[in-house]
Amino acid sequence: MRFAGRTQYLQPEGAYQVLSKAQALEAAGNEIIHLEIGQPDFDTFANISLAGIRAITAGKTRYTPPNGIKPLREAIAEDAGKRRCLEIHPDQVVISPGAKPNLFFPTLALIEPGDEVLYPDPGFPTYEAMIRIAGGIPVAVPLVEQNNFSFDLDTFHQLVNDRTRLIILNSPSNPTGGVIPLIDLIEIAATAQRHNCWIISDEIYARTAYDQAIVPSIASLPGMMERTIIVDGFSKTYAMTGWRLGYGIMPKELAKVVELLLTHSIGCTAQFVQEAGIEALTGPQDQAEAVVADYQLRRDTIVEGLNAIPGISCQKPQGAFYVFPNIKSFGISSNEMSEIILEQAGVAVLPGSAFGQHGEGYLRLVYSNSIENIQRAIVLIREVVKNL
Ligand code: PLP
After folding, report:
1. How far is the CA of 329 from the centre of ligand 1 (A)?
2. Ligand 1 interacting residues, C-beta cut-off 6 A
3. What pTM does this model have?
4. Could you tell me the CATH number of the domain that includes residue 116?
5. CA 204, CA 298: separation in Å to the nearest integer?
6. Domain total for the chain?
7. Are both 252 and 355 inside the same structural domain?
């Protein structure tokens, strides 16, 4: 069959590929510890689920405006503004089913064929996919381990030029957990202004940060809101991955174009899901805060365990729920290593190369799992890699 050229670079997400291999092993009777899929391991908080159920029984099952219902846009404008010290108007908010459409549609709205787009490598695989679909030229900026997986700013400066139309940032990062420090953001912002670039700032893990780390938003820097799309959502903070609820915050003119793209593609986000989102933002926040303390304990356990395995070294990330250990000393590819760990240790992890060429030599492990499973996974991995 022949397909349009724009689809030729599309690849499946590594996490789903490893998940299906792991499930096949499970079906054959093997026990597998799942450290591959990036989602919270707890259920959506009860007050949010009940708000969704109440909305369904109250008949809130209709179409809504494509950019979302006003009370939710107002709640997002207030909450997101307060957290970033910004004045946000509800008309700047575009609600979508998950955060992904708010990565994709602003890119479609802004990128002409041939425009260059800088994005983090290793990085969330959707970035490269959406740049290519839009006809843009993806330009990978390495995240470097020695720099706590922030941008390599020297390379960034070499790559940015007057053809650069958009810069994608993700802090805290998937897959590294790295946080971009304010000092780097100031430099990136000045460069973006000099070259008249847009920024997509993917802040979906902004509330999952440890050790009192402050996760600054580039949008809060002077003059940046007018060229930034903040992307955030409910999937990670409120354990709502399957509900599909996210949003973008952007200048009103761009919000109108993104709304048109939503109108003619997804139509709108489910009404009762949006109602549940209002409860998530305006209801009690103690559970969302408590799970971060829980994750921190798991992070410390996994980092300590991995660093105690000869040949593996692992930084302690400041955010998200991923670790990105260095396995270069074994002299095999991260793909081979993840296959060995899955098949021989029964632990599903992702190769760093699933996140771009600069992820080679690393693995990504998700620690939104129980401390017992994390500890057991470490023992199993240690047993297998000692023979390599
Ligand atoms: N951005 C990053 C960095 C992610 O890791 C993810 C999900 O894994 C998303 C965006 C998409 O989030 P959603 O499930 O809300 O579409």
Report:
1. 31
2. 38, 98-100, 124, 170, 174, 202, 204, 233, 235, 241, 246
3. 0.97
4. 3.40.640.10
5. 20
6. 2
7. no
